[in-house]
Write a structure and sequence with these properties.
This protein is mainly α. It has one domain. 70% of the residues lie in helices and 0% in strands. It contains 13 helices and no strands. It is globular and about 55 Å long. 35% of the residues are buried.
């Protein structure tokens, strides 16, 4: 029955073609560049806030939403490659959890056990609970992603994770739900992330068709959305922007430079480093602090990748 349901739902919207099944192992190096760019956007935005600079900080691509949209594109493929929930869950744990251990140890050594407990509570509660020097660390988004992974795994069990009709319906329901939510944190942490995730999933479903587009078309979509020309669409401009960003990364000529995957390390390390330089080190909120934060974040991310993350990922083949 699940197979029949998937076939009906896929055919209703055109659905993935047979060739899309062969694309699950295609790797786009532009995704590596995009992730690194997004992580640096997050650092820049937080440094701007830390400098107490007036006005908001504009980013070319909303970084957290785009990170999670990429997950929405890649996670269904990972489920297909794994073939079962247990292996998928193990591989996801190997990607995220090992890097958190040295981070929590460092937080304990620098700020104390109470601060480490607050950071962990922020992680587990999506930032709604826990204290860490009066700020919410970026760790909140990790548990939100885990929840979206779990929901996608449930869809996978019923062979619905590649249903275009269901995925589009989820996006519409989330957009309607967000219109009734007044809390900005909930809109940002729960609805923006979830909408972006399923927009990425929808791109994955039509991957075989979208990858044949000229890069000009998704570039136009991204420019239109970021220039504010799509504001008339209201909340619907977010999934359009996220889908356009992923398709643009797919359709552009792929880069040839191989980069270490520092994006995750930069993302989780830069917050505590910022606060450590301000608090225990006593550095002022100035250009020196900005440069030190960026360099230290890259350094610790490199160590995390080489000593923890990459060795952990090698265990996936076992």
């Amino acid at each position: 029955m699940a197979f029949a349901s998937r076939g009906f739902l896929s055919s209703a919207f055109g659905g993935p073609t047979e060739s899309s099944e062969k694309l699950r192992n295609v790797r786009y190096r532009n995704f590596d560049y995009l992730r690194l760019f997004l992580s640096l956007e997050v650092v820049a935005g937080h440094l701007h806030a830390g400098l107490l600079a007036p006005g908001g900080f504009w980013t070319p691509i909303p970084p957290v939403a785009a990170f999670i949209a990429l997950s929405g594109f890649l996670i269904p493929q990972a489920l297909d490659r794994s073939g079962n929930i247990r292996l998928f869950a193990r591989n996801r744990a190997l990607r995220t959890l090992p890097a958190l251990a040295p981070l929590m140890i460092a937080i304990t050594l620098v700020f104390g056990l109470s601060a480490a407990g607050g950071a962990m509570l922020q992680y587990l509660s999506a930032g709604y609970m826990g204290q860490f020097r009066g700020v919410t660390l970026p760790l909140w988004s990790l548990i939100v992603e885990d929840g979206l992974y779990a929901f996608t795994a449930l869809l996978f069990v019923f062979s619905l994770h590649k249903s275009p009709l269901l995925t589009a319906s989820i996006i519409v329901i989330l957009l309607i739900g967000e219109s009734y939510v007044e809390d900005p944190s909930t809109k940002y942490r729960i609805f923006h992330t979830s909408i972006s995730f399923f927009a990425g999933n929808l791109v994955n479903i039509y991957h075989d068709r979208l990858r044949k587009l000229s890069w000009v078309w998704p570039a136009i979509v991204v420019v239109v959305c970021r220039a504010g020309w799509a504001d008339g669409l209201g909340l619907a401009s977010l999934p359009l922007l996220m889908a356009g960003t992923i398709v643009l990364a797919i359709c552009l000529p792929q880069g040839t430079l191989r980069l270490p995957d520092l994006s995750y390390g930069i993302y989780i390390w830069h917050g505590p480093i910022m606060i450590a330089l301000l608090d225990p080190v006593g550095m002022g909120r100035n250009a020196q602090w900005v440069v030190a934060t960026v360099l230290a974040s890259i350094m610790f991310a490199t160590l995390s990748w080489r000593l923890v993350e990459r060795p952990a990922l090698r265990l996936k083949s076992r």
